[in-house]
Amino acid sequence: MKTTLIIFLILCTTFCFGQYDYEVSETNPFGLPNPEAPEQIKDFNLMIGLCNCESTTRNQDGTWSTPEKITWEWKYIMNGTAVQDQTLKPDGSHSGSIRQFNKDSSRWYVHWFSTKTPSTKFPVWEGNKKDDNIVLYKEQKAPNGTDGYFRLTFYDISKTGYKWVGEWTNISEKVVFPTWKIDCKR
Known about the structure:
Layout: H1 2-17, E1 49-57, E2 68-77, E3 82-88, E4 94-102, E5 107-114, E6 124-130, E7 133-139, E8 148-158, E9 161-170, E10 176-185
Antiparallel strand pairs: 1-2, 1-10, 2-3, 3-4, 4-5, 5-6, 6-7, 7-8, 8-9, 9-10
């Protein structure tokens, strides 16, 4: 009986209490990458945590708006098998994404949501790390009907920050029109 109880306690400690070791916690406020997740879970590793950023969008007349100060927060979720980010904005609006890497397709799938545009169907970007950048695509026609993509690129990624650009491109990616830029510093 005593041996059975000891085995039960060991199993319970291992499986009941240790199963969420990679979640956000007091010790790891932004979670940890799960070693059982695909290696690509670390693609966003240098972004995990908080960054102070400036976000600017293109105005209707083609000029750039005055930069807005935002905080971009990143963390590992789903016990370290996915990444969540959210932008915290001074006007009280917020947006974010849940990022999952699919081993079968070898691609990231990014589901975006926003308090300004609640939706029953989240827009989805997909893509991969290319060299030192992370590049994601969603099919989107230009205002004139030309086929293309809305491409999101994270670049200049380092321990001190990163940059992000959202831009429309045609299918061949020879025509590129940036519409949104974010520059983040730790």
